[in-house]
């Protein structure tokens, strides 16, 4: 079957790509969208000065949002909650799952600091009642409390909760909720386009042999498989 596929050389494929005209202004807006959605204020300001591309939101609101995100990433969850409530108290009032995950992160930080008694008290008073109302919450709570059963968390089956990636996950969820409350898209467009590119390449793989992009950091075209 593979031998019946049409084969495109790298030069042929590059010529086809060159035929697709993309306006520089559209690319600039795509980059700016990524900067403001992810909260890179300084990069957004510099990019605006260099290209004249207007951000689609007030950069001042980005600074407030990034202070919240930074607090989570530093483990200061209560500080993040207070900052969110200052921005818009309805964000947490109307999103019980997000509030539970923030409280779960507070529990993780207590465990990380070795405050066992305080962690158990916090879990019982703040999280257990929510777990009784929601089976999914209860499972997440049990998984988090399981950290206390291991002296060496490096070999703990739930040790990933102590990874920096867990803080990032919680911070991203909160960041998305703030964006939604401000009537902005919660996700940048660029990752979505990359996912679409991956999907399109998989579709093309079934029909033609062509130079693929496997390294998205460099976007280098690789010679087609023969």
From TrEMBL:
<dbReference type="InterPro" id="IPR006595">
    <property type="entry name" value="CTLH_C"/>
</dbReference>
<dbReference type="Pfam" id="PF08513">
    <property type="entry name" value="LisH"/>
</dbReference>
<protein>
    <recommendedName>
        <fullName>CTLH domain-containing protein</fullName>
    </recommendedName>
</protein>
<dbReference type="InterPro" id="IPR024964">
    <property type="entry name" value="CTLH/CRA"/>
</dbReference>
<feature type="domain" description="CTLH">
    <location>
        <begin position="61"/>
        <end position="118"/>
    </location>
</feature>
<dbReference type="Pfam" id="PF10607">
    <property type="entry name" value="CTLH"/>
</dbReference>
<dbReference type="InterPro" id="IPR013144">
    <property type="entry name" value="CRA_dom"/>
</dbReference>
<dbReference type="InterPro" id="IPR006594">
    <property type="entry name" value="LisH"/>
</dbReference>
<dbReference type="InterPro" id="IPR050618">
    <property type="entry name" value="Ubq-SigPath_Reg"/>
</dbReference>
């Amino acid at each position: 079957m593979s031998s019946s596929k049409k084969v495109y050389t790298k030069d042929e494929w590059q010529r086809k790509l060159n035929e697709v005209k993309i306006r520089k202004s559209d690319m600039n807006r795509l980059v700016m969208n990524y900067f403001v959605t992810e909260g890179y204020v300084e990069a957004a300001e510099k990019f605006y000065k260099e290209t004249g591309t207007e951000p689609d939101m007030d950069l001042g609101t980005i600074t407030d949002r990034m202070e919240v995100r930074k607090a989570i990433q530093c483990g200061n969850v209560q500080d993040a909650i207070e900052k969110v409530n200052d921005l818009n108290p309805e964000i947490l009032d109307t999103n019980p799952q997000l509030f539970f995950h923030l409280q779960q992160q507070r529990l993780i930080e207590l465990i990380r600091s070795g405050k066992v008694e305080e962690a158990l008290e916090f879990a019982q008073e703040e999280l257990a009642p929510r777990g009784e109302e929601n089976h999914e919450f209860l499972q997440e709570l049990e998984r988090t409390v399981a950290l206390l059963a291991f002296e060496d968390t490096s070999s703990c089956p739930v040790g990933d909760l102590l990874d920096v990636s867990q803080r990032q996950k919680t911070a991203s969820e909160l960041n998305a909720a703030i964006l939604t409350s401000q009537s902005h898209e919660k996700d940048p467009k660029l990752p979505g386009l990359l996912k679409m590119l991956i999907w399109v390449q998989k579709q093309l793989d079934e029909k033609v042999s062509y130079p693929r992009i496997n390294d998205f950091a460099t976007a280098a075209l690789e010679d087609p498989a023969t």
